[in-house]
Amino acid sequence: QVQLVESGGGSVQAGGSLRLSCAASGRTFSVNTMGWFRQAPGKEREFTAHIRRDGGLIYYNDSVKGRFTISRDNAKNTVYLQMDSLKPEDTATYYCAAANNRLVGLLRTRPDLYNYWGQGTQVTVSS
Fold first, then answer.
1. What DSSP string runs through 12-81?
2. Alpha carbon distance 18, 12 (integer Å)
3. pLDDT tens digits, one per residue of 28-61
4. 90 SS3 class
5. Who contacts 66 (Cβ-Cβ below 8 Å, separation ≥6)?
6. 68-125 pLDDT, tens per residue?
7. Is 96:117 a contact under the CB 8 Å cutoff?
8. Exposure string (b/e) for 77-91, b if CB count within 10 Å is 16 or more?
9. Interior/surface letters 41-73, b for 16+ CB within 10 angstroms, e for the rest
């Protein structure tokens, strides 16, 4: 099993920044794919960003491209999501996810293909 714990959420004004962290523990050697998803009230869970185990194959949802940056520190078993130029429409609960399989192409955006999930951290952006 793999446990994921997110942190770093909060409330900011539009144009501000936040950095989310996702600390992984347990059988982390089995994980090949890490992703961030978000879910706003009344909406489906939405893919946000993806990074492979070696830090490659970074991929973003078009809605956050150029504003968000995903990275990882394997020594700390931690994945980060730096969020800049935040907009009110970025308001959501953000979830960290991990998959045992290597996901490529649009498979990276499918939440049903991720094996492990964190509890989520709330991000609220006010105008």
1. EETT--EEEEEEEEESGGG--EEEEEEE-TTS--EEEEEEETTS---EE-TTTTTTEEEEEETTTTEEEE
2. 8
3. 888 999 999 999 999 999 999 999 988 888 999 9
4. helix
5. none
6. 999 999 899 999 999 999 999 999 999 999 999 999 899 999 999 999 999 999 999 9
7. yes
8. bbbbbebeebeeebb
9. eeeebbbbbbbbbeeeeebbbeebeeebebebe
The rounded radius of gyration (Å) of the Cα atoms in the chain is: 13
Question: Measured at the alpha carbon of residue 102, what is the angle toward residues 99 and 106, in degrees to the nearest 5?
Answer: 90
3-state secondary structure of 11: strand
Q: Tell me which residue has tokens 């952006």.
A: 125
Q: How far is CA 35 from CA 91, 102, 121, in A?
A: 18, 12, 14
Q: Check: CB of residue 28 under 8 Å from CB of residue 77.
A: yes
Distance CA 99, CA 4 (A): 12
Environment class of residue 117 by beta-carbon count within 10 Å: exposed (0-12), middle (13-18) or buried (19+)? middle
Structure tokens at 48: 């946000």
Instruction: Tell me the two tokens of residue 88.
Output: 């009110």
